[in-house]
Amino acid sequence: MTAAVTIRIQQADFDVAQEIAALTKARTDVGAVVSFSGICRGSEGDEPIAALTLEHYPGMAEAEIARHAETAMSRWPLTGLTVIHRVGRIVPGENIVLVVTASQHRQAAFEAAEFLMDYLKANAPFWKREEKPAGTSWVDARDHDDAAAARWTRS
Fold it and tell me: pLDDT at residue 145 above 80?
């Protein structure tokens, strides 16, 4: 069987269970599925967040995610993967991102999902603006996200 790869950037919400079912439907070679879903929080530290607005560079974002998906597929023996990232205004409690990896064994699925999420947090071409009581502001990159992504490039 060939590996199934799905990459979507969309404004609409997604259903995690439906995405897992779509990735594994009619597959008998899947022994492990790992999913990570990122959800909009209602606060950052002690400060409430009313919403996040995510923007991207259309075409470039999809191509960059696809490039990292190809890396994951070549680095681990995956039977498939799904990456969905939302854009637009997202309020607390709503989904932001989903990464699902499938393989015959759990270690490959776990590592590939972690690799893809580290990339998405540190390097994917998305820009995030927070709405707080004091106003809106763009979210800066975080050192710990960069460090997490960098560990995948070390020898």
Answer: no
Q: Does 2 map to a domain? A: no
Cβ-proximal residues to 130 (8 Å cutoff; 6+ apart), any chain = 44, 49, 51, 52, 136, 137, 139
Q: If you count them, how many residues does the chain have?
A: 155
pTM for the model stands at 0.92
CATH number, domain containing residue 73: 3.90.1170.40
**98 found inside a domain:** yes
**CA–CA gap between residue 147 and residue 41 (Å, rounded):** 22
Report pLDDT for 155: 44
Q: Is position 155 within any domain?
A: no
Q: How many domains does the chain have?
A: 1
Residue 46 located in a structural domain:
yes
pLDDT exceeds 90 at position 40? yes
Rg (CA), the chain: 16
